[in-house]
Write a structure and sequence with these properties.
It contains 3 helices and 7 strands. The longest helix has 19 residues. The mean pLDDT is 97. The chain is globular and about 45 Å long. It starts with 25 loop residues before the first helix and ends with a helix. The protein has a 5-stranded antiparallel sheet with strand order 1-2-3-6-7. The chain has a two-stranded antiparallel sheet with strand order 4-5. By secondary structure, it is α+β, with helices and mostly antiparallel strands. It has one domain: Alpha-Beta Complex (Peptide Deformylase). The structure holds ligand GNR and nickel (II) ion (NI). The site of ligand GNR has 16 residues, from strand 1, strand 4 and helix 2.
């Protein structure tokens, strides 16, 4: 396995729609393993392929708690096939927008259809943190960041703070 570099916003790659995976093969399985290693090292609870510079529809997640056994999830071509009418607000962060957090409103529950690491079609229904993360990661595949769900005022504030943070890191 290999740890990959995470792209930080603003970057055109993060704004680009990712293409569908045609075949779940060893290349895709290695990509998902490398993404999981990168996600656990960060640490984070999810990661989308565009964040590591790969514009293909692949995401990984693990929302298990600190004291629980790891529960890595690998999803290829994930699609939201149902979303609840009721909405929920959750504080979100993003490994591509380090150190910045904001409340985001999204459907409280979703059903997602995807291909697993063997190319078998599956569905997962989720609420809570898993529902938030699935929507956050699928957004990445469409070039959408959590700040795109905020008002322009809040978005600009976060992007300015991120630019400051980047400068402090470089120094
Ligand atoms: O690690 C992450 N934590 C998180 C917390 C609340 C809502 C969404 C997330 S996803 C984020 C990792 C990431 O940037 N995935 O794209
Ligand atoms: Ni993110």
């Amino acid at each position: 396995m290999a740890k990959l570099n995470i792209i930080i916003a603003p970057d055109p790659v993060l704004k680009t729609k990712a293409r569908k995976v045609e075949k779940v093969d060893d290349r895709i399985r290695k990509l998902m393993d490398d993404m999981l290693e990168t996600m656990y090292a960060a640490p984070g609870v999810g990661l989308a392929a565009p964040q590591v510079g790969v514009l293909e529809r692949v995401i990984v997640l693990d929302v298990a708690g600190k004291d629980e056994e790891p529960r890595p999830m690998r999803l290829v071509n994930p699609e939201i096939v149902w979303a609840s009418e009721d909405l929920a607000v959750a504080q979100e962060g993003c490994l591509s927008i380090p150190e910045q957090w904001a409340d985001v409103t999204r459907p409280a529950a979703v059903k997602v259809r995807y291909l697993d690491e063997n190319g078998t079609q599956r569905e997962v229904e989720a609420d809570g943190l898993l529902a938030v993360c699935l929507q956050h990661e699928i957004d990445h595949l469409d070039g959408v960041l959590f700040v795109d769900h905020l008002s322009p005022l809040k978005r600009n504030m976060i992007m300015r703070k991120l630019a400051k943070w980047k400068k402090s890191q470089a120094a």
